[in-house]
Amino acid sequence: MGAMDVLVNEVDSKFGLGAGKAGSLLTAILSLIQEQSGGLAGFLDRFRSAGLGDMVSKWLSGGSAQPVSSESLQSALGQNTLSSIASRTGISLSTATSALGFMLPKLIQTLAPGGAIPTRLPSDALSYLTGATGMVTAGARQAVHAAEQSG
After folding, report:
1. Cβ atoms of 34 and 129 closer than 8 Å
2. What's the chain's Rg over C-alpha atoms?
3. What is the pLDDT of residue 58?
């Protein structure tokens, strides 16, 4: 079981979403990272620009993976993006935001071990974008992209 599967199972267990919906959330956030100009580095810059640089530094230094607050997520990603992810994954906005806030620090630490920000997503992350989970949530990726363009 890869690191992404472990993360999906952890989110499913904590929030009772079912593996499909937890996987859809992961796919949505990975899509957002992949489509971000600059990839993961550009995605992290959104948090820095929202005044959350200390939080990003903790993620990259391997510090405590404290959940991101709903307010901080909204500040960095925007309400439209969060609403779109929730809608497309079939999860309430509050649950989706809480689950994403829990997932994100752990995901960043998995994607950037030792603080080294990769230029492309690792294969186990890409499998969520191209495999069965990714195909099921193709609509989620499109909605996130559309929300990015409008928000």
Report:
1. yes
2. 14
3. 92
- Terminal Cα-to-Cα distance of the chain (whole angstroms): 36
pLDDT in tens, the chain (151 residues): 789 999 999 999 999 997 689 999 999 999 999 999 999 999 999 999 999 999 999 999 987 788 999 999 999 999 999 999 999 999 999 999 999 999 999 999 999 999 999 999 998 899 888 865 444 444 444 444 455 555 5
How many H helices and E strands in the chain? 10, 0
Could you give the dihedral angle defined by the CA atoms of residues 66, 149, 94 and 69, in that order, rounded to the nearest 10 degrees?
Answer: 20
Tokens, residue 4: 């992404």
- With beta carbons less than 8 A apart as the criterion, state whether 26 and 134 touch: no
Rounded to an integer, what distance in angstroms lies between the CA atom of residue 32 and that of residue 147?
10
CB 33 within 8 A of CB 147: no
The tokens of 104 are what?
Answer: 């994100």
DSSP H stretches of helix in 37-92 = 39-49, 53-60, 70-77, 79-89
Query: Tokens in use for 31?
Result: 């899509």
- Using the 8-state DSSP alphabet, how is residue 95 labeled? H
